[in-house]
Amino acid sequence: MKKLIRSLILFIAVMLVVPFLLRIPIARVLQLTGAAEAGGGLEYAYDISVFLTLLLFLLFSGRRRLAAAGRRRKEARAARRERDRIRNSYVMNLDPYEYEEYVAEELRSDGFTNVDTTPKSGDFGADVLARDGDRKVCVQCKRYAPGHLVGVKAVQEIYSAKDYYGCDDAYIYTTSDYSPAAVEMANELGVVLVRTEI
């Protein structure tokens, strides 16, 4: 509110002072160009100065608004990068079991229900079980370093686990990426491959 009042006061001050200052040079230009004698008249000098003042004020305030919007966008991008950096370093510092808990939490935040991790040993290829509406989902988690690709073995394991747990869908989550053969097999078997951004 204070900013609006300040802008209004500045606008009124500019509109009261600047046209009077511009009127004399504009009248002189009209006289030199012969517009005053040709019917342009000196009486329009004030109107012209008001128009020019308004135009300059709008251009100046628009430039400031654009600069402020640009600064806000830059700050938002920097904040997003910082959030991503913190999140990414956090994910890569998790051990494989902590990564399973992380994926379970991601599933909960994405609207999955009844999300549970399986026992650390004897999980039959699934690390997390969940429900997506009326569909039961099993998930395998691979907390790998970048460059260490998830292969076809993981796809085979989660596909088998889907039958074992009586699930409708199978997912693999990884911090790395998938080999071309794994992608091909997953597409063939209907296994969903997810990459956690790091």
Which short descriptors sum up this protein?
5-stranded mixed β-sheet; single chain; alpha/beta; 198 residues; 2 domains; Trna Endonuclease, Chain: A, domain 1
Describe the model:
The chain is of the alpha/beta class and 198 residues long. It has two domains: 2-92, no CATH class; 96-195, Trna Endonuclease, Chain: A, domain 1. Helices cover 59% and strands 15% of the residues. The chain is built from five helices and five strands; from the N terminus they run H-H-H-E-E-E-H-E-H-E. A five-stranded mixed beta sheet has the order 1-2-3-4-5, sandwiched between helices. Strand 3, helix 4 and strand 4 form a beta-alpha-beta unit. It is rod-shaped. It starts with a helix and ends with a strand. The model is unreliable at 38-42 (pLDDT under 50).
Please specify the SSE layout and strand pairing:
Layout: H1 2-33, H2 45-92, H3 96-109, E1 113-117, E2 128-132, E3 135-142, H4 152-164, E4 169-174, H5 180-189, E5 191-195
Parallel strand pairs: 3-4, 4-5
Antiparallel strand pairs: 1-2, 2-3
